[in-house]
């Protein structure tokens, strides 16, 4: 992994992604920039995770965004966890960076296609290092392909999609922020056959707000409560509402992270 870290750093400094808590998702930077021009560059999110048969947990995340540059710090805590917590991790701190840029704007054919690169890098306690790189093209209809990699160290995966994976997406994005896309995230490293298929819609509403719906279907090899391999086929749903200065999310995820627990996730936050 130490050999790949300089490459990830080069991608970062070479000049902009969707948040690493959602590393595979198509970027909504134009609509997001318009929202944050009004509300400020900071975003504070508090999330609570209720897990069947496991210890509940809480996560705090502070993000800063200016133009195409994003950075964040966060911490996961499962207070008083004496048994099983999310992925066996009681507490973990993290930090990360994202960029999204268009290096081919001066090349007429590629520039007209709106080709963009979106690299990300994340570090966490317990020695975790991860990164992703996504290539996207097309306006307003778009397609994207991405690759995510980690060093395999313990990590509380709060985006719930496989991190060591390839991703493929296709959809439509209107300048006003209306977005529809289908996204496939598939493990291509660990041999689990894990697949997440997302159907996502985002709709702007009067007053500068936005509604988001994410439908999930998943399949692949996971674990039961005894840690034995088990083929899993399940799904989930996530609902979100964004106002100019605050937002709220509610999600139901069956067999979260392909483990034995079903989970509820509630998040609330503010932009300032």
Account of the 3D structure:
The chain has 272 residues and is mainly beta. The protein has a single domain (5-271), classed as Beta Barrel (Porin). It has helices at 5-13, 29-39, 108-113; strands at 42-51, 57-66, 69-77, 91-99, 116-124, 128-137, 141-150, 165-173, 179-187, 195-205, 209-223, 229-242, 246-253, 263-271. Strands 1-2-3-4-5-6-7-8-9-10-11-12-13-14 form a 14-stranded antiparallel beta barrel. A hairpin with a 5-residue loop joins β1 and β2. It is globular and about 55 Å long. The N and C termini lie far apart (36 Å). Residues 1-20 have low confidence and may be disordered.
Low-confidence stretches: 1-20
The radius of gyration over CA amounts to: 18 Å
CATH architecture: Beta Barrel
Helix content: under 10%
Shape: globular
CATH superfamily: monomeric porin ompg
Structurally, how many domains make up the residues?
Answer: 1
Order of helices and strands: HHEEEEHEEEEEEEEEE
What about the largest sheet?
14 strands, antiparallel, barrel
- The number of helices is 3
Question: In percent, how much strand structure appears in the residues?
Answer: over 45%
As laid out across the biggest beta sheet, the strand order is: 1-2-3-4-5-6-7-8-9-10-11-12-13-14
- Indicate the CATH topology: Porin
Distance between the termini: 36 Å
User: From the helix content, strand content and strand pairing, which structural class follows?
Assistant: mainly beta
Count of individual beta strands: 14
């Amino acid at each position: 992994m130490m050999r790949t870290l300089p490459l990830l750093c080069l991608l970062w400094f070479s000049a902009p992604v969707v948040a690493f808590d959602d590393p595979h998702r198509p970027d909504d930077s134009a609509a997001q920039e318009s929202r944050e021009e009004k509300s400020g560059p900071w975003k504070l999110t508090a999330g609570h995770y209720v897990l069947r048969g496991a210890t509940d947990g809480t996560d705090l995340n502070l993000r800063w965004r200016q133009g195409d540059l994003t950075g964040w710090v966060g911490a996961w805590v499962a207070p008083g966890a004496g048994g099983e917590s999310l992925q066996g991790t009681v507490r973990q701190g993290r930090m990360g960076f994202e960029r999204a840029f268009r290096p081919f704007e001066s090349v007429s054919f590629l520039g007209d296609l709106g080709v963009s690169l979106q690299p990300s890098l994340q570090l966490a306690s317990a020695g975790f290092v991860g990164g992703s790189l996504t290539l996207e093209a097309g306006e307003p209809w778009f397609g994207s392909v991405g690759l995510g990699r980690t060093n395999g160290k313990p990590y509380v995966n709060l985006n719930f999609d496989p991190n060591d994976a390839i991703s493929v997406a296709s959809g439509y994005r209107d300048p006003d922020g209306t977005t529809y896309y289908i996204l496939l995230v598939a493990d291509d490293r660990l041999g689990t056959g894990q697949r997440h298929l997302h159907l996502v819609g985002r709709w702007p509403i009067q007053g500068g707000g936005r509604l988001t719906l994410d439908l999930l279907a998943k399949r692949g090899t996971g674990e039961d409560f005894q840690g034995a391999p088990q083929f899993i086929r399940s799904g989930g749903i996530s609902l979100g509402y964004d106002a100019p200065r605050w937002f709220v999310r509610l999600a139901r995820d069956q067999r979260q992270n392909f483990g034995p627990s079903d989970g509820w996730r509630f998040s609330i936050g503010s932009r300032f």
